[in-house]
Specification:
111 residues, alpha+beta, 8-stranded antiparallel β-sheet, 1 helix, 8 strands, 55% strand
Length: 111
C-alpha cells in the first residue's frame, strides 16, 4: 500500500511539473541595470512569445499549428504586424508572407 501511495504522489508531482513546463518566463538584466522579460506560453499546437523591453515596449510572436497549416504572426512594439501562413498537402506546401506594410510574397514547394 505504501508503494502505491508513493507512485500516486510521484505521478501527481510529474503531472504538475509537466503542466508548468508549458509556460516559461525569463528576465535578463543588462550591465546598466535595465531588464527585459520574455514569456513563452505553449498549448496544443499554439505558442505565444512576448518580449517586453526596459521601456515597457512589447513584441508578440504567435504561432498556431495544425496538420495542414501553420500561421505565425509577429507584432512589433510599434504595432506593425507581419505574418506567414503555410498550407501543407500531400503534394507540397505553399507559404504566403505578409510584411508590415501589407506587401505579400508566396513560395510554393512541390514534392
Amino acid at each position: 500500500m505504501q508503494a502505491f501511495r508513493s507512485i500516486v504522489l510521484l505521478t501527481a508531482l510529474l503531472a504538475t511539473a509537466a503542466a508548468h513546463a508549458r509556460d516559461r518566463q525569463t528576465t535578463v538584466t543588462g550591465p546598466n541595470g535595465q531588464a527585459a522579460t520574455r514569456t513563452v506560453e505553449r498549448a496544443d499546437g499554439q505558442v505565444t512569445d512576448t518580449t517586453t523591453g526596459p521601456a515597457g515596449n512589447s513584441r508578440v510572436r504567435s504561432v498556431s499549428r495544425s496538420a495542414s497549416q501553420t500561421t505565425a504572426t509577429v507584432t512589433g512594439a510599434n504595432g506593425a504586424t507581419s505574418s506567414r501562413v503555410t498550407d501543407r498537402s500531400a503534394s507540397g506546401s505553399t507559404s504566403t508572407l505578409t510584411g508590415r506594410r501589407g506587401r505579400t510574397g508566396t513560395v510554393t514547394t512541390t514534392h
